[in-house]
Amino acid sequence: MTGMSCPRTAEHDVVVRVQAAAFTRGELDWAATWTDRAGRGRTPGAGHELSGVVVEPGYATTGLRPGQPVFGLADRTRNDTLAEYTAVEARGLAPPPAAIDHTAAARTTDHRA
Known about the structure:
1 helix, globular
């Protein structure tokens, strides 16, 4: 890693080095982005759609390994896919189709694409 702050994995999480991300217009206005899963207030980060490479699979994750390309969605209470590294639930990730690059994979998860 480059010395940037890297999130820690929680159970069922995967840390991903983001290669590309999509941003949905107006997403900072979504009420769900202003609270965490426990309902505590937080400053939202932008981005839910991403494509990147697994850095660290967390406890109880299966089928994902360091260095593996992935794409998918971060849930609304844990966005921040515009960061260099982000933690995402493993269930929100999948290997991208072989024929597309990271930019296309991130955009593929964008519901407006």
